[in-house]
Amino acid sequence: MLISKFIEAIKPHVDFNSIKTICDIGSRDLEQSFELLKVFPNATIHAFEPNPESYEKCLDQAVEGIEVYPYAVLDYDGMTSFYAVDQKDNSGASSIFEPTEDVVGVDRFEGMKKIDVMCTRIDTWAEQNKIEKIDLVWMDVQSAEIPALKGFGTMLDDIQAIATEAATGTLYFGNRQYEPSHYQEVNKFMTDKGFVEVSYDQPWPLEADLVYINKNEKR
Predict the structure, then answer these.
(1) Could you report the per-residue pLDDT of 163-179, keeping only the tens digit for each?
(2) What pTM does this model have?
(3) How many domains does the chain have?
(4) CATH code assigned at 68
(5) Domain for residue 25, yes or no?
(6) Does some domain include residue 59?
(7) Model confidence over 148-165: pLDDT tens digits?
(8) Domain assignment present for 103
């Protein structure tokens, strides 16, 4: 399972029986939603996927315990530009940001087109859906981590653990606003919010997989 390292990292810190609400942000094909549901069978997984082709696939595959939403998760509500990759290539490389010249020609970024999609803040979505608390977050948003995390607002205070990515190179033009690096900016944001990094894995040179545990005293 792709979530195995996440589960192992949070096991010493999280009461698994307390997990009731999980967000899978940038779900692509629900693969990790299914994995999370297997580990947390009493939880509801809320999967967000703005790529229209991927969203339809998620809807077709959803089962009891998994809810699917056609939104990009950001720090505002409305519409956003979105660079969508075809299902046959690698829809997981889709992003609100345009890929840089560093990855032009890389297979995973072929078949990309710019479209407009709906976006939401998580705290707005939660209020609309009468969700008071989120326990875990699995996030794969291709360099949009900072605006996505900001969109949780004060709901971050109650989240027990977050799995996310961060760029260590310039995958997307959106990375270039962060100095000295996107990873360090994500890590600083999480640390300032009371989270501690408990796992760092770098499966390829331009991106790292991170796991954070909430040490916030408000919890």
Answers:
(1) 999 888 666 655 555 55
(2) 0.89
(3) 1
(4) 3.40.50.150
(5) yes
(6) yes
(7) 999 999 999 999 999 999
(8) yes
